[in-house]
Structure formats: C-alpha cells, structure tokens
Amino acid sequence: MHALFDLAALGIGPATLLMFGLMVVLLLTGMPLAFVTLLVALVFALGFFGPMSITVITSRIYTFVNSFVFVSVPMFVLMAAMLDRSGVARDLFDALKLIGGRIRGGVAVQTIFVSVILAAMSGIIGGEIVLLGLIALPQMLRQGYDRNLAIGVVCAGGSLGAMIPPSIVLIMYGLTANVSIGDLFTASFLPGLLLASLYVGYVLIRSYFSEGVAPPPTKEKIPAAEKLRLLKGLILPLLVVTFVLGSIYAGIASVTEASAVGVAGVALSAMVRGEFSWRFLRDSAMQTLSTCGMIVWIGIGATALVGVYNLMGGINFVAGLITGVSDNPIVIVLLMMAILFVLGAFLDWVGIALLTMPIFVPIVKSLGLDPIWFGVLFCMNMQMSFLSPPFGPAAFYLKSVAPPEISLGDIFRALLPFIGLQAFALAMMLCFPQIAVY
Amino acid sequence: MSRPQTPEAQHELAAELPTHETRETPIPEAGLLGRWIDRLGHLFAVGIVAAALFLLMEVFLRYALNAPTIWAHETATFLCGLAFLYGGLFCVSRDRHIRVVMLYDALPARGRKALDLFISLASMIASGFFAYAAWLMLTKAVWSPAGDLRLERSGSAWNPPLPAYLKIFLFVLMLVMCAQFAVILARQLRKPGKDS
Amino acid sequence: QEYSFRFQSSDPAGNPNFIFQQGWTETVTEMTGGKVSIELLPVGSIVDYKETPDAIAAGIIDGHITDTSYFAGRDPAFGLIANPVGAWSDPAQMIDFVENGGGKELMNELINPYGLEFIGVSTPGLEAFVSKVPLEGVADLQGVKVRSPEGLIANVFAAAGANPVNLPASEVYTSLDKGVIDAADYSVFSVNQDTGMNEIAKHPVYPGFHSLPLVEVSMNKAKWDALPAEIQDQLKASVKAFQQTQVTTLKERDLEAVGKAEAEGITIHNWSDEERAKFRAIAQEQWAGVAEGSPMAQKVYDTLTAYLKDKGLLQ
Ligand code: NA
Ligand code: NA
C-alpha cells in the first residue's frame, strides 16, 4: 500500500500526539463530533497506509451497527421518548417529591436510586443516560434543583450501568482475561454501590451546605386524599420496572430482549392513561431515530478511529509505555491507571479495551495480582472515561436530549466533581482491594 | 416548554401538544434532498418499532410456547442497524449532530461562515471516500470471487442475505450523505454572511 | 531478505488459544532463523472476525488464525468443512483429513479465489457442551433451549429436537445464568471452567458430541507466493508444531479442569457410544442439505464422506 502523504515517517509516538491534537482542533471548529473522529481516522488511514485502508473504517462501521447488544439502545431511547410524551414521568417525580421532599436533595437522591435500578436492567450505557436526561433532568430543574447538580446526577448515575451487573464492559474483560464473568459481576457490585453512595453523599452535602442547590424541603401538610392521588404516580413505573427486572431475573428474556419488554411496559402505561395514539408512537419513534443517529454515530466515529490507530501500531505504542519502567507492582498499576485515564479522555471504552487489555492483563497476571480486582479497576476507569472531556460519551448522550441552552461546556463543568468522586472511589479500590474481592 | 399543571389538562393536551421533535425540520440549506431524507425517516422509525415487536414476540414464543424462532434476533439487529445508519444522515439534514460550539459562537459572522464551509467541504470529501470504501466492501458482499452474483449471508441457521443488504445500504447511505453535504455546501456558498 | 507480517486472531488476548498462537509466532521466528517475524493481534483489533478475509485480500492485514466456520455466509462450504457436526470424535481424525485426506486442497480451492493461501490447520479440540440440565443422550435434547452460533450446528440441534436460540457470545453468560437458555455451544472444557460457565450450568457433557472446530492459519496469497520455497516450508512446519502443542496441552488442561470441576460438585456427563452415533446420524442428514447450497459445498461433502468411508468412520 502507498500512503498519499507520509505520516508513517513520523513514528507512532508523535503520530499519537498529532492525532489527539488534530481531534481537539477539529472539535473546536464546531465540526460535528462524529465527523471529527471519522475525519481524523480517514486522514491517518490515508496518511499511513493509502486509499485501500479506508475499508477498515467502513468495515468497522458495518460491524458496529450490526451488533445485537446495541439493539437495547434504541429500545431505551424509545422508552424515554414515550415517557417524555406521557405524564408518567411527571407523576412519578411528583410522587417521589412526596416521599423524598422532606429532606434537602431528596429527589436527586431518588434519581440516583432510579439510575441504580436502570443499571440493573441494561448492559451498556447510553440508553439510560438518554432516559434520565429526558425524564429526570427536566423534572429536577422544574423542582428547583441546581442545574450542575442535576446534570451530574444524570450523567454519573446513568454511567453506573457498566459497574452494576449485567455489564458488557465486564463481560468483554472476562472474555479477554479468561476469568469468571460471575466473579467479576460479584466483585463489581459493591464498588458500584459505593460509587452510588458517594454520589448520594455528595448530593446531600451540597444540598444542605450550599444555598439554592436543592429546593427547600416541603413543610406544608398535604391532605391524605392528595397524598393518595400523588402516590398513584408510582404504580405504573413500578410495574414497568417489575416487568423488565422480572423478565431478566426470572430467565424469561435476555438482557437485550428485556429492553423491548420495557418498551411494551411504557406503551401499555401510556394506553392505560389514555395518552397513547398513533401520533404519540410516530413522534416517539421519530425522536428515537434522531437521537440514536446522534449517539450511534459518535460510536461509529470512535470505532473507526480505534481500528486505524490499532493498524498504526497503537498496541505496541501502549506496550512500550510501560515496559521496563519499574519492577514495583504498585508503580506499574498506577501507571496503567494513568494510561487508562489519558486514553479515556480521547477514546471510547471499546477502543481502550482493545488497546490496553492485551497488554495489561498478562502483566497483571505475571505480577501475581488478582485479575478480578484489576477488572473492577478497569471498569471504574471506564466509568471515568464516560464523563471525562474532551471525549466523554455520557456528556454527548445527555447533550443529545438536554434543552438546547445547556451547552457541552456546561455539562463537562457540571461533571468535574463527579469525576473527582469516581477518582476517589478508584483510589479506595486501589488501597482496599477487599471492597471488591472479599 | 411549559406544560399545564393539572393532570387532566395534561391528558387532554398530550395528544395535541406539538413536541419539540415534530416541530423540527431539516435546515433550509439541506434543500429538497434534506426534505426527502426527512420524510423517508418515517420508514426507518417504523423499523425500530418493528424490532421491538419482533423481540417481544421472540420472548413470548420461547418462554410461553418453547418455540423460539431462528429469525427474530437477526431481523431486529438488521432493522436497528438500518436505523442507526440512517439516523446519522437524518441528523445531518437537521443539523442535529452534537458539536462543540464554544469557539464557533465567539466568532464573527464571517468567521462562522468560513468554518461552516470548511466543515461541509471536509465532511463531503470524507463521505465520498467512505462511499468509495463501502463500494469496495459491497463488491465482495454481492459478487463471488469468480464474478457471479452471490449475496453474502449471515451463516446462521436461518442464513439470510442481510449482511449483503446492510453493506449495500451503507454504500448508498454514504453516497447520499456526500450529496447532502454537497447541497449544504452549495447553499452556504450562495448565502453571503449568514447568521447562525 | 526479512519479512514481517501482521496476523489477526479470532480469539481475545487472554484466551489460552491466543496464547498458543502467540507461541506460534515465536516458533516462526525460531524456525526461519529470524527471517520472518509475525505480529499477532487479538480479535477485533483491526476488523471484525467475520471480515478478516476482505482485509487480508486488500493487504490491510497479512493473515489470520481463525475458525473457518465464521465464513459460512460467503459459501456454505466453509461451514461444512470447518464443522461437519458429528464427524470427528478426536482432533487427530480431523487433522488427518485436512493434511492427508484432501482437506487442505479443498481449503485452498475455497480460499485461493478470495486471495488467501492456506498454511495449515489447528484446533482447540473437542468442545465440551455447557448445560444446566442433565443430558445423557439425544432424547434428553428434546425441547432444550440451546444457544448455537452460526453454521450447521443450529440445524443439527433443531433436527435432534432441541430449540436453538441465536445469541452472541457476549450474551451467553447472563442468559445461561438466568435460565433464558438451558445449554450452550461455547468452548472447550478448560475455557468453560475458567470463564465460570460450569459454575452456572452444572451438567456439562464432556467430551462434547457436537463440535470440533477447524482453525485455519492462512495469509495473503500474493505475499505467500512471493516467499522463497524454503520459508514456505518452514512456515508450514511451524503451524504443525503449533497444532501439536495446542492439541496436547489443551487436552491436558481439559483433564485438569475436569478434576477441578468434579471437586466443585459439578456433574460431568459422558455420552455412550450409541448416543453419540445417534447424534452423528442426525447430523449427517444435515450435511447433505448443506451440500446442496453451493458446488464447493457439494465437493466438500463428497470428499469428506469418501474419506470417512475409507477410514471406516461412516458406513
Ligand atoms: Na448494568
Ligand atoms: Na472521556
């Protein structure tokens, strides 16, 4: 193959820097994100290998959209679009306010609970963030929550899906490292809850100690009849959750199929409430098409870039970064964490997994460290990569459904404290492996 | 968007209320092509709903009747795959793709126009290259090495030619996307000092 | 002159098969006296495992080590030669068919037009069958929901009375754990044991009765043709060495894992020869159906059945 212009002469190290630099510059021009990564992939494919290598990009696009596990994304988005058009979400949050309204930040805390439940329903992140972004974000803003706190709760909560089983991140790690997926699920559960409780703690502290972060607790007495009417708002959402979780845990449906059960549950709820119509369905489906177009094409760009980077020798480059640095296992693990964090800023998790796992897992095993523990650390890092700028998928997913006045900059700023909390949880996991492997 | 407070009123209005999605239309620069892309979107949206129904049917047949099908999962994956790809084109016509506009918004109209032209041109060229690569892929999925027409199949027990269909669709989609960027570029060139 | 090639595997990085394949790349360097170096990439690094032939033909990667049945969608012959369900009860039989029974000629006839050259064969061995329900024979398969990947295998399970469910590898664990499916065609015993499959499905059938995959090592034909004959021979010999290591070591590991599994209270089922023969008979009826799919598939069928009859493995 002959390159059009010889980028290969640069060597992989400088080429990596150039690649990330070009990504940032193109991002700043206002070019749509999906096309930024696609264009960078194209430039480097042409520059390193010539026109024939562009088929790597189209081949990866084909594989990406032709994947069964991704079917759950449009299902979650369709659920969200229907909930957005029905009164279910509003009634749910009014009922939640009745229960949690007596403490400051109560509804935000409940949103984190909801996101833990959603995490138990799905294996990949994306759908839940869209769902929370369409449902919980406007409701929290309506009730007077601080915008940054509400955004952070939605993105960080929505990313819990990777830590709380089932999780495709952990399954992919298990298959790569050849370790028990069941053990990984067991090990990640507590750290997942730890993360959720850190979020809860943060929300409560902010609500109580900062003015105007959360609406003041409700003081007035609500008549019993009104309470009963409000609590009715819980019934339909609880039924839908029971259907979906029930179908997964009773072995009726696979995780991906269960997302379609959720769609049916929400559609039925809308019918019960008399809100369902053809137009309701059509509008919801059209919104799903548009939202999926946005979020899937971000993934398309990311997968294209990773294929080209691997072809350029990315794996060798990452391997070169850690070989011979130190004999101290702690230093090596910390270095791995640092590499995962930096890569997490620019690539999506599948790409990071493809690049680093072949290198990291054998090293971890040869150092005598527990690969299950490392799997949980890896997963924690991926949680951070969902949120970290400039390439933070969770922020992009939220942006795809957030009110237009909320910019990406606003979202990333709101996420910083939550990234800090994730880093804290990661540090805890490093210091106290017992949290995962007891 | 402000919504009525009482649940009753909300019920009444839920059907009437034009949601932000139905109000949304292709950007003027997308031209006639953009309007067609928008209209055709309904077909792919129906595909998503159909995928949900097939999955539900599969769950029912397998769990209740112990009679799983060999086609439901592959069909659902295919329909969603089509919708994913088309959704990207759909968002181009509506200018709904996510972008970082910090610097863009700070620029004067002339600077923004220059960036618009650059973005459309670069995206058009990139889509053109991808259409070419998708064509290379298509030839392998549609013709056997000996040159006879032979659609690539999935190799499953059902063995449908869906892989070939999806690869053909990817080629057509990249071509149309290239054309859509060309239309947008042409209109941006004609429209002096546009305010975004 | 020195040569460096880049191969993509169909296995993930930490999988034992991948580690054997990495061992092969070292053998290649040794056997060729450092003239050939091969970089092996794990599954999905450059392109998906189903798309490697196109990437090799285009010169993007140079070769692959992969289960041939992944290409059954291009020509049913790939599915039939890679996994004629029920044909083999030992890796040695399949390897002999490929090396001495006309298999490698068929492989080249199949993949040469795609721009690939077949170098040699290996296999992880006879797969173990993952099951939550006790299975002692074909009759027990009735109504069992079994995950089966692409290829002939699903048709055979259906003909045997089971209900094949099409699921990707990433959904097998949770679906089996929760009982969406009762059984799965997955991997060899030791790998199933490592990934925790036997822990959630405590009635594995070992040795399996269903699958013994043909793993091909092949590369870009033009690049192969450009190699000196001496290096070509060294490469072929290196694959033979890799095959021997993989087959014997995995068998040892399987036996070791069987011991571990039994200690954990997992019940291992072994089918009687009669039951295995019954399943094979059902499978053979399906071969004929696949053979009708393409002229190459018919040719594979004819060569295969002739070989089996010649060896007394088929009446
Ligand atoms: Na999850
Ligand atoms: Na990131």
From TrEMBL, chain A:
UniProt topology in membrane: Multi-pass membrane protein
Subcellular location, principal: membrane
Sequence intervals crossing the membrane: 7-28, 34-54, 61-83, 112-137, 149-175, 187-209, 230-252, 288-310, 330-360, 372-391, 411-432
UniProt KW Oxidoreductase keyword: no
Coiled-coil region(s): none
Compartments, record wording: Cell inner membrane
TRAP C4-dicarboxylate transport system permease DctM subunit domain ranges (all copies): 20-435
Keyword set, alphabetical order: Cell inner membrane, Cell membrane, Membrane, Transmembrane, Transmembrane helix, Transport
Summary of the function given for this chain in its UniProt record: Part of the tripartite ATP-independent periplasmic (TRAP) transport system.
Family: Belongs to the TRAP transporter large permease family.
PANTHER family in the cross-refs: SIALIC ACID TRAP TRANSPORTER PERMEASE PROTEIN SIAT-RELATED (PTHR33362), SLL1103 PROTEIN (PTHR33362:SF7)
Assembly notes: The complex comprises the extracytoplasmic solute receptor protein and the two transmembrane proteins.
Name listed for the protein in its UniProt record: TRAP transporter large permease protein
From TrEMBL, chain B:
Disordered: annotated span: 1-20
UniProt superkingdom: Bacteria
Basic and acidic residues composition bias: residue spans: 9-20
Subcellular location: Cell inner membrane
Pfam families: DctQ
Record InterPro entries: DctQ, TRAP_DctQ
Segments crossing the lipid bilayer: 43-64, 70-93, 114-135, 164-186
This protein's UniProt keywords: Cell inner membrane, Cell membrane, Membrane, Transmembrane, Transmembrane helix, Transport
Subunit structure: The complex comprises the extracytoplasmic solute receptor protein and the two transmembrane proteins.
Family to which this protein belongs: Belongs to the TRAP transporter small permease family.
Protein name: TRAP transporter small permease protein
Originating species: Salipiger mangrovisoli
